[in-house]
Specification:
This protein is of the alpha/beta class and about 200 residues long. The chain is about 55% helix and about 15% strand. The chain has a single domain, classed as 3-Layer(aba) Sandwich (Rossmann fold). The chain has 8 helices and 5 strands, in the order βαβααβααβααβα. Helix 1 crosses helix 8 and helix 3 packs parallel to helix 5.
Length: about 200
């Protein structure tokens, strides 16, 4: 099964994907954890370009295509091989992020983004997505409290508000796949909700 974790800055998705990974691993399941962009040597180099604050001149179209290119490499090297042998993949972000951030945040045409993305990854899609929801200003304040904001995180609040609208749109359009969870309820409470869905979908 291919499972993704989505959410805005400071929502805690990276914490939750690690907890889910540890839980599934404790059951003896064949599971890998990865991130998008990243997860391979090539894709991590692309990630560095995208996150680097000194690259403010990146055009919106270039940004979108770099994300998609990194995803293509991740799918080819990590995700498809793991799924082909019957394993589980947990991925920190995937195509939903491109729609929310580059589509809604950067006002790029969603149909064209999807066409480029589907070409790059041959229409691969997650079967289950956990979306952690948070007020954008609150999430950014959380993030800024413990790290320097990267190029994407440091964008103005209206951009992040648009990203949230994008995620809300995706959740409404995909109720069978996307499980929206309020990120304000606490780390262990969120993990309990996620664990319940994993047990149900994986027949644990």
């Amino acid at each position: 099964m291919f499972i993704t974790f989505e959410g805005q800055e400071g929502a805690g998705k990276s914490t939750q994907i690690k907890l889910a990974f540890d839980y599934l691993l404790s059951l003896g399941l064949d599971v890998v954890i990865t991130r998008d962009p990243g997860g391979t040597i090539i894709a991590e180099k692309v990630r560095h370009i995208l996150k680097d604050n000194s690259n403010a001149a990146i055009a919106k179209e270039t940004e979108a295509l770099l994300y998609i290119a990194a995803r293509a490499q991740l799918v080819a090297e990590v995700i498809r091989p793991q799924l082909a042998k019957g394993g589980i993949v947990l991925c920190d972000r995937f195509t939903d992020s491109t729609i929310a951030y580059q589509g809604f945040g950067n006002s790029l045409d969603i149909d064209r983004l999807l066409a480029a993305n589907n070409f790059a990854i041959d229409n691969l899609a997650p079967e289950l997505t956990f979306l952690l929801t948070i007020d954008p200003a609150q999430g950014l304040a959380r993030k800024a409290a413990y790290k320097q904001l990267d190029r994407i995180e440091a964008k103005e609040l209206p951009y992040h508000n648009a990203v949230k609208i994008g995620y809300d749109y995706l959740a409404a359009r995909n109720p069978g796949r996307i499980v929206a969870i309020d990120a304000a309820i606490g780390v262990q409470e969120i993990h309990h909700v996620i664990k319940g869905h994993l047990q149900n979908r994986l027949g644990l």
